[in-house]
Amino acid sequence: MYKLTLIIRYLLKRRITHFAVLTVALCVFIVVVVMTVMNGLVGQFKQKNHDFVGDCVVGTKSLVGFPYYEELMDDLERIECVEAVSPVVKNYALLRPQYDREQYVELLGVDPVRHSRVTNFAQTLGYHADDPANAFVPVYEPNALGCVLGIDLVLWRDARSQYTHDARPRRAAFSLTCFPLNARGAPAMAGTTVVSNRQFYYSDNSHSGIARVDGSTVYIPLEQAQSLCMAGQRRRVSAVHIKFRPGTDLRVGVEEVRGLWGQFKQKRIDAPDGRLLETVTVEDWKEYRRAFIAPMEKEETLMSVMFGFVGITTVFIVFVVFYMIVSHKTRDVGVLKSVGASCAGVMGLFSGFAFVVGLLGSVAGIAGGWLFLARINRIEEWLYQRFGFQLWDRTIYAIGEIPHEVRVHTLAVIALFAIVACLIGALVPAYSAARLRPVETLHGGRT
Amino acid sequence: MGQRPLILKAERLHKSYRMGATAVKVLKGVNLAVEQGQFVAVIGASGSGKSTLLHLLGGLDRPNEGTVCFDDRDLSRMRARELNRYRNEMVGFVFQFYHLLDELNVLENVFLPAMVSRGIVGWWGTRAAARRRAQELLEQLGLQDRAQHKPYQLSGGERQRVAIGRALMNEPRLLLADEPTGNLDSATGNDILAVLERLHQAGQTIVMVTHDERVARRAQRVITLTDGKVKI
Q: Given this model, what pLDDT does residue B131 score?
């Protein structure tokens, strides 16, 4: 019982203890805020990529594409766990607006209805979210070819990450130019030249929330993309995107698709253009988008390592504080031992003290972090209005609000880490205190 | 009056400390026997080994040679747990500089030994009794009005009385006092000695070390320690 009593008294009476609690609280606060924001950003980015791609992709990196995709889709749709599939043509093109400079874009040929079943394509549309079937129909020129432009290609994003939408897409024509490749991968003649060129009208925009996609992607109808980019007898696509039924384990689903793909390829490898199937891989959405996700995850890992150093600093600060406390309390240790306290008891006293310091610091840090995160967007808005300062310049970074959703699991891990750090920091001083010989501590001094 | 049973017996006690490269011999074969209910004063000059002897008798330190037996039990053969219990229940210490805990008030300082011997659960069961016992002790020591004060709010004599209260909390069979008046003026020191005398009259066994002959004369028996040995 003396341990609890003394822990409470040390906490209340010793000012240095307040600094120890404050130090832990500050460390926890920083970790909570930065980890929450960073986790939120990475989580959002992953989710957006998942939404953009679907669950699984059977595709090739080659611009030549692969044939027999209709049969593949038929086979895929027969798998129990597959909910929908969408064929996609991917290529690069030159976008030439009527009154602006040309620019390089990524071309995605999709069937808007099928693609909306697999990805969140429909939800990203500015004007046809409820009617993706007409996404490629320009309202001002219904019989013309339409295209969906990444939102940053047509609209200006303001400092609050907002776009100014017109009531309906404004009339604008774009010319798309690309090099069609035949099944052997050679440039194919398109008329009299080796480039194919076609005019499209702006029918809608797509806001995926992925800066790279929104700033450089043009969606056109699948058949148009095939005729623009892929010459040859058999129609080809770059990929077939797949959505699994809810509740399907991603790994299990992907394995099932891999199994099917292996048999499918085996059957058609000797068919005309069948060798193109060799370049096709089956990947889940994370693997498929790893070139984009990996750097973010790297940053997250780097951040964790940096917070590892914060943790080490906490351990060291707690060590110093406890070393000072124990140095000032050696006489108490002697007194306690003279009235029968054991070495384990003395060690327990200082370890318990460290535990309480860690616990209080964690609670204070978490509470402070939580409050700060709840107001982080308001604080940023205030800073922007007052000083024109933005943590992330929204004209550059495609994020809306700063993520502030606190995950209980993350908080629990941070609190546990802080408490363990305190216990580690107090270990040596507590052990030294426990090993003190009472006769060494009871000479001299008053009270 | 017949001879009373021995409560404490020290035989051929040797103790030395290292001071850098040299070993300083403090006790050189001390023999001592204390009967139950005796008030023994150990007198000696500064550095004669009085406090060291007291620490050995109280189980705060271990001798290099020799034995200390309490009720025929050799302290050196006791396990750490038994030795802690010995210090908690059998012995009460009174130090020259009081050594009260600053964070606790007077009452809490007095019942500290009762808290040490009990865990949280055990303490809740005996808390009321311990508080009563501590309050009784404070009344006996004339400190009932000081129960809620902090040690720094007390005079030297009052602090020493609190230290005596703490030493008596678990009703130890042996009270060890290390220069209990050494830090007090003579009037206050007399008060403290009067308290010890009262305790002795009530049957308490006391071993007190002092360098002051006048203080030692207040004890029932005086042992002189010279150059690490008991002077015959």
A: 93
